[in-house]
UniProtKB/TrEMBL annotation:
GO cellular component: NatC complex
UniProt subcellular location: Cytoplasm
Organism: Anisodus tanguticus
NAA35-like N-terminal domain segment(s): 44-144
Domain NAA35-like TPR repeats: from-to ranges: 384-753
Entry's family note: Belongs to the MAK10 family.
Protein name, as recorded: N-alpha-acetyltransferase 35, NatC auxiliary subunit
Keywords annotated in UniProt: Cytoplasm
Length: 758
């Protein structure tokens, strides 16, 4: 017996021997002792011996960790053992009907595993939990299963290659680091600076193959074998239909299985699965062809994929009826096959040592129904990419990527988009980066061949441009993080370009009618770089709304910062257009007034007016929120931990470090909003101005569906906020029961005020 003391009393814990004692050993059951010890432990406590040390802890076994616990119970400990015990029979059954059913279940479960892999789980735990894929030669006697496994491996390999090619390695280089400091340039010491995006965690895990048989000899001929099997089943289907219609069978062919009543259903179920796999393989391979040459063909195969996927979904009812599992609506919530049966030949624990490096290591395969929905979404996103017209203008490229990101595309779709945009350091693999910059800067065509492109700083600008495109193709959380970091790089490159151009060509700020092409290139590029910097800053701020990073009490400062960024962006965009047209700006007119003035003496370009709509919305929301804070004491940015000043710095630290724009601080925001009143805001109604300009711009963008949709959203936000502002101004002081809420019901970034009675 052993004594265990706990609390005030003393309890006896019986120790029952379960292992026979030897000459020098005595075994005893300590389960009850451990149970009492566990009950006595509190969170954060650890039982250890006197000789415990950190090295021993690092070398210890972690119980239930598949990588560390060598004694962890598994169904099988190797693929060979699983096969030896009949976990992956070939054929699946000597009954042909059962064999066909089992093969379809394997195909369906592989589809669910593939979707689970695309969603972020490792290849080892999903697709390659299939024993038939781990032992490719084993299925050679089963033509149907063998051909499907081959094309499955080839498809996965093609997808892995695409995602691997678009991974952006962190490359460091040494360069002088110039930082703009309040109107002057501070030159810091030479520091290593990254110019690439860095590894993406989702891409790292996605492309981990762990030495799995992803490439097998003969997989390059997978379509030939699949086509032969498909043709055989198509002939069996034709023979079956001829028998059912009592027509003469023109060819003698053995049926697919033994039950003639199920022959047609099984043939159709197999054909749509084989054809979907064939067309999907064509999609991923054609989209990888250089310079977008395979996009049209890929688009045709995508249409075929949609048809076959619909047929697969329809076949589920037939497959479930065989197993008497009811209709499609009765289940399918967690089943990984269309029939609802458990597939043979899978064991997710076999590759548990190759599982993800961070918890949770256990995964749940998504259902077959959700897998089908996933592929429908993925195919739709790939179809959008294939329909892209490869716009050579950089502004058009940015617009397309931003619009594409609104669909929240999957990793595979984003990888294909990045592969299309950036190939061999060129846009679409055909346009040099300097040529893209020249076109974006509205320079003449001859400028793209100028030797200035060999300048080291210009080359670095090209690298930043490629990095920007890659960043914009990532998921929005990673995208925002990286946009904030590269802001300073764009700010620095502008200073470096200005210094390099001034050193080589003299004062580039001066303008003259007979300036040479070098001076013109320098001026245009500098203006364009500034414009892009402010565009990145605006994108960085807008993404905060999509990621729910701002609380309602912080909307005022966020919209204020968006407002001043949009002013600078509109200035630079207008300056680029004016410089291109060689039109001198009117003397004595401030840049800010030039942008905000609705064009009394001349008409601003539609692109500037479009920005002006956003600018007025941001200004209107800023002043409305500021007035509500000042008069009604609501939506105050206060909290027990952070002051408003600290929150301002936390949200805009990266912008402030890059001096975007110059001379901006929390005190600028405080000074602007401190005296806002509802009476003043309602008199100068920015929302009405935004609504007016949006209506006038309809004719300018009648052929641009995206711009027209955005104008409609702007009109809705402006109209609702204008009405809400009027109500608050008239009834706010009279009726204290009025409550104001802000919702994103009409626009993803600009809130709509909703006035209700409490």
């Amino acid at each position: 017996m052993a004594d265990v003391c706990e609390g005030e009393g003393e309890r006896q814990v019986p120790i029952c021997p379960s292992i026979p004692s030897g000459e020098q050993t005595v075994w005893a059951d300590a389960s009850s002792l451990l149970h009492l010890a566990c009950n006595d432990l509190r969170d954060g406590e650890l039982i250890h011996g006197e000789n415990f040390n950190l090295f021993a802890a690092m070398s210890a076994l972690e119980i239930m960790d598949p990588k560390m616990d060598s004694g962890m119970v598994r169904t099988y400990y190797s693929v060979d053992e699983a096969i030896e015990y009949g976990a992956a029979p070939v054929p699946l059954s000597f009954d042909k009907t059962v064999d066909v059913q089992g093969t379809i279940d394997i195909m369906d479960h592989l589809l669910a595993c593939e979707a689970t892999w695309h969603k972020g789980c490792s290849l080892a735990q999903t697709v390659f939990s299939c024993l038939y894929l781990l032992r490719p030669d084993r299925t050679s006697s089963h033509a149907l299963l063998h051909s499907y496994c081959r094309v499955m491996r080839a498809s996965c390999n093609a997808v892995v290659c695409t995602v691997s090619d678009t991974r952006t390695n962190e490359v460091s280089r040494k360069q002088p680091l110039y930082l703009p400091c309040r109107g002057k340039v501070c030159v810091h010491s030479t520091l290593p600076r990254p110019h690439a995006v860095g590894f993406h965690w989702e891409e790292d895990l996605f492309t981990m193959t762990h030495g799995l048989p992803l490439k097998v000899d003969g997989d390059d001929k997978c379509l030939t074998m699949l086509h032969a099997v498909e043709e055989t089943i198509a002939r069996q289907l034709r023979a079956c239909k001829a028998i059912l219609s009592k027509k003469r069978v023109t060819e003698d062919i053995e049926p697919l299985q033994n039950n003639p009543d199920l022959e047609e259903g099984f043939c159709k179920s197999l054909l749509c699965r084989l054809r979907f796999r064939k067309h999907f393989y064509h999609v991923v391979t054609n989209m990888k062809r250089p310079q977008g040459r395979g996009l049209e063909l890929a688009k045709k195969h995508i249409a075929c994929c949609f048809e076959e996927l619909d047929s697969m979904i329809k076949s589920a009812e037939f497959l479930r009826s065989i197993n008497a599992l009811g209709t499609l609506e009765d289940g399918m919530k967690s089943e990984t096959t269309a029939s609802g049966s458990q597939p043979v030949g899978f064991d997710s624990t076999l590759n548990s040592r190759l599982s993800a490096p961070t918890p949770p290591r256990a995964i749940e395969t998504i259902s077959w129904k959700k897998a089908a929905e996933y592929f429908q979404k993925l195919l739709h996103e790939l179809e959008i990419i294939c329909s892209y017209n490869l716009d050579p203008v950089f502004e058009g490229v940015l617009r397309f990527v931003v619009e594409f990101q609104k669909f929240q595309p999957e990793l595979v779709a984003r990888a294909h988009l990045q592969h299309l945009l950036v190939q061999d350091g060129k846009l679409y693999g055909r346009d040099s980066v300097f040529a893209v910059i020249c076109k974006a800067s509205l320079l003449p065509e001859v400028a793209k061949n100028h030797d200035i492109q060999k300048n080291e700083t210009v080359v670095q600008l090209g690298q930043l441009l490629i990095t920007l495109l890659r960043v914009l193709c990532t998921n929005i959380s990673w995208q925002r993080r990286k946009l904030g970091k590269i802001l300073q790089d764009w700010r620095i490159i502008h200073v470096q370009l200005e210094l390099a151009f001034r050193e080589e060509f003299g004062d580039i700020a001066a303008t003259s009618s007979n300036e040479n092409i070098c001076m013109k290139i320098c001026r245009h590029i500098l203006i364009w770089v500034e414009e892009q910097t402010y565009w990145i800053a605006s994108r960085f701020l807008m993404l905060g709304f999509e990621l729910d990073l701002y609380s309602t009490g912080e909307y005022c400062m966020v919209y204020w910062y968006i407002y001043i960024i949009l002013i600078k962006l509109a200035e630079k965009t207008h300056m680029r257009a004016m410089t291109s047209n060689e039109i001198s700006k009117r003397k004595g007119k401030k840049k800010r007034d030039l942008v905000k003035d609705g064009g009394k003496d001349y008409q601003l370009p539609p692109a500037i007016l479009f920005l002006q709509c956003h600018l007025y919305l941001a200004e209107g929301l800023t002043m409305m929120l500021a007035a509500l804070r000042n008069e009604k004491q609501i939506y105050l940015s206060t909290g027990p931990f952070n002051s408003e000043h600290e929150r301002f710095v936390q949200h805009f630290e990266l912008l402030l470090k890059a001096c975007l724009p110059d001379h901006v601080s929390y005190y600028s925001f405080e000074e602007t909003t401190a005296h806002a009143r509802l009476s003043n805001v309602s008199m100068y109604n920015c929302f009405k101005e935004a609504q007016r300009i949006a209506k006038e711009l309809r004719s300018s963008f009648s052929n641009d569906s995206d711009k027209m949709a955005e104008l409609r959203r702007i009109e809705q936000v402006a109209e609702h906020n204008s009405v809400a502002l009027g109500l608050i101004s008239r009834l706010g002081t009279v009726d204290p029961s009025l409550k104001v809420q802000f919702e994103f019901s009409h626009h993803p970034f600009f809130a709509t005020a909703v006035v209700k009675r409490s």
